[in-house]
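Hello again,

I reread your note about wanting to compare the complex against the isolated chains. To keep things tidy I'm splitting this into two emails, and this first one only covers the full assembly. Below are the input lines as submitted, including protein chains and any nucleic acid or small-molecule components. They are followed by the predicted structure of everything together. The single-chain runs will come separately.
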Amino acid sequence: MTSSTDDTAPGTRRRGRRGGGQDTREALLRAAREVFPVEGYDRATVRTIARRAGVDPAMVNHWFGGKENLFTASVAIPVNPASIVHEFVTGDPDRIGERMVRRFVTVWDEAEGGSFTALLRSITATEEASRMLREFLTTSLFGRLTRELEVDQPQMRAALCGTQMAGLGLMRYVLHLEPLASADRERVVAAIAPTLQRYLTGDIDGVA
Amino acid sequence: MTSSTDDTAPGTRRRGRRGGGQDTREALLRAAREVFPVEGYDRATVRTIARRAGVDPAMVNHWFGGKENLFTASVAIPVNPASIVHEFVTGDPDRIGERMVRRFVTVWDEAEGGSFTALLRSITATEEASRMLREFLTTSLFGRLTRELEVDQPQMRAALCGTQMAGLGLMRYVLHLEPLASADRERVVAAIAPTLQRYLTGDIDGVA
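Full-complex prediction:
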């Protein structure tokens, strides 16, 4: 009855360190889902999560490339923060808003939105979970984006972008509000890109 | 031991119809929280909710002025849809966005945001709850607003406003993302009002 992909003796697997297979990846995801909400994003370490999963810390790099992507995988955020920020800031600076909303809608449309509901459910469940996501956004996504852009009021601009992105996700994927929920991707881009562009590089003080 | 505000004999209160006191109001709120998520906003009737609460349907008008405000009270939305839409559309049409975001932030700041978290938690919990809020927004808030404004693409414009409002609430009151969470009300108004104004009366097709 022993599976051919599992060559450890029954009963010993949970005590020893796991090998490098798919079950290691799953164990890391489970451990991450336990550790991040308790420790927060900033304080949680690769070492703590690996120990809890019973695997070598090097397995985090092997399977996820580091703490950031382990986190995004554990909360079902289907993006790599470093590469997505690189994508946003590369190219015409007057079209960053357009690239951001197009990528956001593409990613979550393909994930069929279900995981956006799961994400919202988890962050509204406890103060700890909300802190975890806040720290991740601040540290990994917004901080990086606004450092690259060299604008004034970087944190405020990033937070404003966050409001528009999160609200779009909420209305399109959770509330399924029509006609937005079924609107063509490019129609959503056309409507919302100017908002993100202004938040990132335009006037946000109402004096223009 | 009988409270002086409750003159019914113990044990009889749940069987008979309630009087017009504060316990009637509470019973209606409890019944509304049971009926709306099951029936949806549009299909739920004052009669059904009153019957479930064991009170006369006239008590809904007496305590809440009708189904709309019974609903908003039951989900802790601290606004009256009819009067808030009236407030938005009265005055300079180029400053509707400003009035909307100022009112939104004022209302939820005063509610200390906690009920915004509760609202989000309830709509992400079940598909029924999300449908209930969607129907309410469409029927009572957005439909009324865009009818008053006489613009093209009214539903799309209303939904776009919804994305920005909901996302602002999420970031300011649930995630507590700084510096947005602590920003002065008027700073938030200055940053976000132009977005709502464009969604309501400006170009949303990206051809300008």
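For quick reference: Chain A has two domains: 11-75, 81-201.

B.
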